[in-house]
Amino acid sequence: MSEKIYCIAGFKPKPGKEEAVFKALQSLEPNTHREDACIHYTVTRQIDNPFAQGTSYPIVFHEIWASREEFEAHCQRKEIQDFFAKHVESPDGDIEDANVCVYTDEPWNFDAPKV
């Protein structure tokens, strides 16, 4: 049974703050990569492509964590909480809106045997 958690965290910067938000999010990567449970943690920015014209927030983190508990521990790190307080929750922050969701790769009613 897979315990992995997949997180997609989208960010909508305030007008003119796109580069600042991208750099601020990139600054979170080095310490997060040091966490044993971090499998993948990369901030990306949306680009134009004629084969992918969907709508999304322009900056997105793609994350994979070894387990739900370890993802939740990551979310409680001071550096992560400080980022959200300064950039998302503060009226003076550079981010207009954020959308953070977690997913599993297990199908409904997955019946893998316990090992």
TrEMBL record:
Keywords for the protein's UniProt record, in alphabetical order: Monooxygenase, Oxidoreductase
PROSITE patterns in UniProt: ABM
Pfam annotation, one family: ABM
Domain of life: Bacteria
SUPFAM superfamilies in the cross-refs: Dimeric alpha+beta barrel
GO molecular function: monooxygenase activity
InterPro entries reported in the protein's UniProt record: ABM_dom, Dimeric_a/b-barrel
Domain ABM intervals: 5-103
Identification of the protein by name: Antibiotic biosynthesis monooxygenase
Organism: Halomonas citrativorans
Lineage of the organism: Bacteria, Pseudomonadati, Pseudomonadota, Gammaproteobacteria, Oceanospirillales
